[in-house]
Cell division protein FtsQ
Amino acid sequence: MWQNVRLLNAIASALVALVVLAALAAGGHWLIQRPIFTLKAVRIDGDVSHINAPTLRANAVSRLKGNFFTIDLDATRAAFEAVPWVRHASVRRVWPNQLAVTIEEYKPLATWNDGRLVSVDGELFAANLAEAEDDGKLPEFAGPPGSEKDVTARYYDFVRWFAPLKMKPEAVTLSNRYAWSVRLAGGVHLALGRERSPESLATRSRRFVQAYPQVAARWGNQIEYADLRYPNGFAVRAAGMRFLSEDQAKKLAATPVQKRDSQKPTVAQPAARQKRSQ
């Protein structure tokens, strides 16, 4: 081997290359550890109406490790996304010693039945309710686990369907049996039942909207509840209305007309018998 000049030259070249690489690595390590590359500032941009500097310092900035070269951008992004109200964060380096973070906040739409909030995209997130309701009380959503996107989508439908009445939904509920109910502004509760077909809820809502002027003319703001689950109409309950039991209804039906007319009317019964939930 020692007489093989070509092999010796190759070994020598390899050794030189290793020495050079080691020197470069040592020099690079020394260089990236210089104080000039220590992170001096974190610049926050984007939608931060619900996020303040102390919150970011306490929940994200204090968890950052490394300098301009060594910081883990994925871990940094995750740290910012763990802050309340942050939906998404993008992070990039700014030469020589800064980070730029762009924040996208959740936009609250409603409250969920487990105490969390629902975003305008139907995503659940945890945040301070008082901050979410700075501009007014939020609608109330409720439904089985995993149904938040369905409830959100249906809320937008109800907003559109009941717009002619100028009554926005204040609460939307999907029961465990997947029956829908809505409470409109003013306190009117609507039972819409299950979604039997793609158009069933829209049809029931449209029927109520079309008939509401006549119903309101009769009962005014006393309407408390409407059952829209009937195939060709709906039943209404108004404040102060007392309903007959089936036995009472039978007795009233058996009473002679003259005797019945002589009695003081104390009962209204447009919805005395209501169909069970469909």
